[in-house]
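User: Can you write out an input/output pair for a complex, sequences first and structure second?

Assistant: Here is one pair. Inputs:
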Amino acid sequence: MLKSFLAVFLAAILTENYILSKFLGICPFLGVSKKLNTAVGMSLAVTFVLVLATAVTFPLFTYVLEPLGLGYLQTVVFILIIAALVQFVEIVMKKYIPSLYRALGIYLPLITTNCAVLGVTLLVLEKSAENPSYTFLHALVNALGAGVGYLLAMVLFAGVRERLEDADIPKFLRGLPITLIAAALVALSFLGFAGIVDGLL
Amino acid sequence: MNKGTLWQTFSKGIVKENPVLCLLLGTCPTLAVTTGASNALGMGLAATLVLICSNCVISLLRKVIPDSVRIPAYITVIAGFVTIVQMLVKAYLPALDKSLGIFLPLIVVNCIILGRAEMYASKNPVLLSALDGVGMGVGFTAAMLLMGMIRELLGTGCLFGVSVLPSFYTPITVFILPAGGFFVFGLLISLANKLQGEKKAKGKIGCAACPLSKTCAKAEQSEEEAEGCGNA
């Protein structure tokens, strides 16, 4: 049982890293990874919302939408829930945990349209439909792993980009092109993790 | 409103303001589903359909939607059309539905659609908004198709699943892997920058067209301020 959680967690971080192998949340990956601080702040906010969104949408789908035959409303309902949740978290955080709000608050509005959040909530449902032993807890662990994987990719990439600042780059590659090529190399290194989880299952 | 304006509204999305290669919107699907030309085409057409419909409806509602809740309102409209497209694809093109996977519902958060709603449809009449949607959609589809064809050709030696390269060509599998996606996209953007002339290639990430660019910039700025305080 524990082993399966570990496998789900590691798979979410390494082999199916949501930025580098599933291409979810690329905009913030390219947009706010210029500095390490911003990268960490954004990733922590994403992780927080990811786990929360999965905790709400997974039971809602399994116990409300599915039994009522409303599965097709999934997309509409999920995106509205995520938008409301982000707004709610922002308000609660501002009122009760101002220090955390100062650190993460600014990233919250960006997360509503971050496809990683909607993507992960949809993917865990897909997985649980395929595999009956994939429970709500697995989904939560998966969401947490996705967040940690997001953090890992953002931090690694922020480091790469800080180095790029001083590099002598050919003129036609300056700006976004070299950033994307650097991302390609980081993604290539993550290919090395392929198969690491298979032994655990 | 003469014919020239209409043509310009339509054509700007294809080359001059190509949403993918010039405005740099919708990068997630561009990277994720371009492993093959037919996937790329399917995704492009699905997003175009949603874009045209949502542009029309948002343009019609532009005087009714209160400014403070406009983003949630746009998202709801877009999500409705995405659900329709999702059901249509599921019913008539089940193979495409399988290969696009979650990227079909993720059209909801595709920033091209939200971006056009915010930047164009909320300020312009229906006909122009619809044309803008068609133009941007065609531009998006063309860019997706280009990228899908390059990746499929180099990565598998096929086009639309049909083998076209001579048998001595060894496919470079990395091109259909995620790393190849980033790589091809990077080169295509540098090419687009080059063709557009030097003035646009200012070494900045092209976030300007993204509806959330202001928030992003604010985040960066507040970090800098925080750092400044720490140093002082």
